[in-house]
Amino acid sequence: MKVWLPILAAGVITLFVFGDPAAGISKKKDNRKAEIKMAELEKSKLRTATFAGGCFWCVESDFEKVDGVREVISGYTGGRRENPTYNEVSAGITGHTEAVQVWFDPEKVSYENLLDVFWRHIDPTDRSGQFVDRGRQYRPEIFYHDNEQKTAALASKENLEQSGVFERPIVVPVTRFEKFYTAEDYHQDYYKKNPIRYKYY
């Protein structure tokens, strides 16, 4: 009995701090609010950038602090399955990676500025995930929306490689954007809705 008490206590602490790992696995994808918000953003004059840099909770938080960024939506991109769920993506069976779409005002912040923010918040030498999040569903990647973004992304990657900041090669792909699927509503603004869990995460 004495042996199991610490294990039980650790399990209770884990559930309190991080939540039940199965709790985020919904049988039915509920992303209605995110879809409505995306539809509204698509009618605006804002520009769009798409980045993957590990867990989208963290990437969303990083970009929402940037002056000129109007909205950041968490979701999935770079995979094969239509409208994947968090359960499917986190299991690594769809080829998607967790990503964010950044909606920004180009008169206040440039795409090049957003690239700088991206590079400063990831490990660009790690293609197998980011920090504690492992697997291709957490791989870092830049998804360009037009030739202008492609040119800027490749140039910024080359500049980082030549800077000598990292001893290992920069392995972040620059890939043509195809389709973005919004994540479930409970993932949107997660760091605001769950500040204690996000802090411990």
Overall pLDDT: 86
Cα separation of the termini: 30 Å
Number of strands: 8
Rg of Cα set:
18 Å
Largest sheet: 6 strands, mixed
Report the order of strands and helices: HHEHEHEHEEEHEEHH
In what range is the share of β-strand residues?
15-25%
Helical residue percent? 25-40%
How is the largest sheet built, in terms of strand order?
Answer: 7-6-1-3-2-8
Query: What is the molecular shape?
Result: globular
Low-confidence stretches: 1-26
Secondary structure category:
alpha+beta
H/I helix tally: 8
Structure, described:
The protein has 201 residues and is an alpha+beta fold. It is 38% helix and 18% strand. The chain is built from eight helices and eight strands; from the N terminus they run ααβαβαβαβββαββαα. Strands 7-6-1-3-2-8 form a six-stranded mixed beta sheet. Helix 5 (111-120) crosses helix 6 (147-163). Mean pLDDT is 86; it is low at 1-26.
